[in-house]
């Protein structure tokens, strides 16, 4: 069996020639034909069809065909089309042989692919475990962050993330007073927008509870562990293994997403970024609670009363812009 010779799937004419000694000058007729040996699917059409029809050799270059054996033991190549539609014409036995051989070949290739991938089963199980640990770490950090913040701020963050509205802006009021040419006093009020900066690190972690990472990882691990650890799997086991292995791409996606979300959360929790959270709602009481929250998240004690902290921010803004008034979270 050619499998033992290391070529599971014949992909080039060179591979084909290394497995079978093809008689290139022979032609194949129905009378000389004995039986098919093996199908092949080449990458390029480089096999020449040796079937003889209408008195001459077909010679069509093809990708998909069969190695067949003649009564004199020589081996020749026939394209798939000539095999099924000419040599196999009106001969169910011949057509059946070709079709069975193709089915067996496909099955062998599939089995080989799965069994090769199964060598990675242990490392895949280790990866699902590692991803679960990563998930729990991210989950606990995300929950700690969200729980610390007032609900109004959590809602504002979620909304901003969904709208991709990362800019944290505020407005200040300038009132100009004067007299016009006729001496009549006038007052001009103008609001001017200004930015505190852009939020960093908002992401899926804000809704981590709604993601199915944990379930998916557990499910995958169970599936991988359910595949028997033996050299030759039966058909049912093979299908089990194939279903489990088909989820490797899912594992890769989860690993990438967990890593990405952990980085985002880390960015979010940087002190300068946390400061922005004080400015996403206008309610002074909530802003004061946010001050407490961010100091708690930074692991530091706030030396100032939170209400005063907020008032000082606003006062500093007013003074800096000589403003008559300000609007936060505008
Ligand atoms: Zn042909």
From TrEMBL:
It comes from the Bacteria. This is Uncharacterized protein. The lineage of its organism: Bacteria, Pseudomonadati, Pseudomonadota, Gammaproteobacteria, Pseudomonadales.
């Amino acid at each position: 069996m050619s499998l033992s010779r290391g070529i599971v799937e014949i992909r080039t004419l060179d591979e084909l020639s290394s497995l079978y000694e093809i008689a290139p000058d022979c032609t194949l007729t129905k009378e000389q034909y004995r039986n098919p040996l093996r199908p092949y699917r080449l990458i390029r059409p480089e096999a020449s069809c040796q079937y003889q029809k209408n008195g001459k050799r077909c010679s069509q270059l093809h990708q998909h065909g069969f190695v067949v054996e003649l009564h004199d033991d020589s081996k020749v190549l026939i394209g798939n089309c000539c095999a099924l539609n000419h040599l196999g014409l009106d001969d169910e036995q011949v057509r059946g042989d070709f079709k069975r051989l193709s089915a067996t070949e496909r099955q062998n290739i599939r089995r080989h692919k799965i069994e090769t991938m199964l060598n990675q089963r242990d490392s895949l199980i280790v990866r699902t475990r590692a991803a679960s640990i990563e998930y729990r770490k991210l989950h606990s950090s995300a929950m700690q962050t969200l729980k610390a913040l007032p609900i109004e701020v959590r809602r504002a963050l979620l909304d901003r993330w969904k709208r991709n509205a990362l800019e944290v802006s505020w407005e200040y009021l300038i009132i100009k007073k004067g007299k016009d040419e006729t001496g009549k006093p006038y007052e001009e009020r103008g609001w001017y927008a200004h930015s505190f900066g852009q939020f960093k690190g908002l992401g899926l972690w804000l809704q981590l509870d709604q993601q199915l990472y944990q379930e998916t990882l557990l499910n995958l691990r169970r599936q991988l562990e359910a595949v028997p650890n033996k050299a030759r799997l039966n058909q049912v086991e093979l299908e089990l293994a194939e279903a489990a292995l088909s989820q490797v791409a899912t594992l890769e996606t989860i690993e990438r997403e967990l890593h990405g979300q952990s980085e985002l959360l880390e960015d979010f929790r940087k002190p300068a970024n946390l400061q922005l959270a004080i400015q996403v709602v206008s309610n002074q009481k909530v802003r004061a609670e946010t001050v407490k929250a961010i100091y708690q998240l930074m692991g530091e004690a706030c030396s100032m009363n939170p209400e005063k902290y907020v008032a000082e921010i606003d006062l500093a803004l007013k003074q800096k812009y000589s403003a008559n008034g300000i609007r936060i979270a505008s």
